[in-house]
Amino acid sequence: MTLALPDTAAVTAAAARRGETYLTVDELGKQFGTFVALHRVSLTVQTGEFVTFLGPSGCGKTTLLRGIAGLDPPTTGRILQQGRDITHLPPSERDFGIVFQSYALFPNLTVTANVAYGLRGAAWPKPRVRDRVAELLGIVGLADQRDKYPAQLSGGQQQRVALARALANEPGLLLLDEPLSALDAIVRQHLRQEIRSLQQRLGVTTIMVTHDQEEAMGVSDRIVVMSRGRIEQIGTPADIYDRPASPFVASFIGHSTHFDAVVDSSVGMVLAHGVRIAAQAARPLLYGARVKCFVRPEHVRLHRGDGAPAGALTARVTGMEFLGPVCRVSLEAGRLHLLAAVPPAELAALDIGPGSVVEASLPAERVMVFAEDV
User: How wide is the angle at C-alpha 219 spanned by C-alphas 300 and 70, nearest 5°?
Assistant: First the structure.
């Protein structure tokens, strides 16, 4: 399938709009009786940006999306779309398309009729509707399925139909509510890349809700990590992963080893279960301060004998998991438990297995440290 490229003027205009603020959420709050679902949430979304609301069940991410869509208006605060206050407008007066987790396709309508469902009125004469539906079905790769009914399609195909329908009336904002959660892992991975590719091609501002961190990391320009109705951190996938703003983000995003410690010196050392560990992030903290530390498994290095750097910890291998590109190795250094992610070839070269004694080094710049009151 070959798509026509936009002309240079269109590309330049789209690039100019990219830096503009498209959506502003200002001090948004939502209560259901005495339960506070959102606590004064604020954020901005830029034109053409792909932003994902990420967090565990009950964190408020779907409530926030529904507030933006007008399906569940907020209790306090306001929402601006391109400078227009839409806080209390009904969904029909807002400029968005939405894809639900359940697809919400009409079972008695063909693929063509489902996509064309919202294209009505003077702005959509029959020839334009026909051309728009054909264009979208070509983009999502379903031109040859146009006369089928939803029950005759796979889950991935149904989701493509739902996506085409959401984009049919050329919305300025695309909302995706857990769009891939009903699909199996392989289809989900393939379709999320298709969604990202389509979003970039069309330049439509997009907000997605998911609890799947891999999904969020794989498609987003920025991620909004939420917990208990609050925003914990907003940043690029790299920022969120490498520089988490709180213990919650450090533990929720990716795998990590967590241990409690106290600051042991002013030169960047912490003491955890009797083991002294170098940690550059501890330098600004007061001696004796209680902290929570996190280390990513891929940052833990294993060594044999004299090859270990200064400060390495003597550890015993207590378990090993083969995960394809890496093996996850469980370690005990005294009462300190660690995880290391090691390529199988490197593991074979070290000639270690369950029960082996190795040296484990933790790069000081990779130990994440949070004061306990954070």
Answer: 125
Q: Hey, CA dihedral for 145, 142, 149, 158, is it positive or negative?
A: positive
Angle between helices 155-167 and 126-139 (to 10 degrees): 140
Distance CA 73, CA 95 (A): 16
- The distance between the two most distant Cα atoms of the chain, rounded to a whole number of Å, is 79
Secondary structure (3-state) at 48 = coil
Spatial separation of the C-alpha atoms in residues 159 and 165, rounded to whole Å: 10
Residue 316's Cβ-side half-sphere holds a number of Cα atoms within 13 Å equal to 5
Task: With beta carbons less than 8 A apart as the criterion, state whether 98 and 168 touch.
Answer: no
Per residue in 165-195, pLDDT (tens digit) is 999 999 999 999 998 887 888 888 888 899 9
User: Measuring CA to CA, which residue among 145, 144, 119 is closest to residue 130?
Assistant: 119
User: 17: pLDDT confidence band, cut at 50, 70 and 90?
Assistant: low
In the block, which residue shows the tokens 């954070």? 374
pLDDT of 15 > 70? The answer is no
pTM: predicted TM-score of the whole model, two decimal places: 0.89
Cα separations (Å) of 319 from 58, 137, 315, 325, 340? Answer: 34, 50, 12, 17, 11
Q: Once rounded to an integer, what is the mean pLDDT over residues 230-236? A: 97
In angstroms, the CA 28 to CA 42 distance is 6
Higher-confidence residue of 12 and 279: namely: 279
d(CA 205, CA 95): 11
Separation of CA 297 from chain center:
20
How many Cα atoms are found within 13 Å in the side-chain-facing hemisphere of 90?
1
> pLDDT, tens digit, for every residue of 257-277?
999 999 997 789 999 998 999
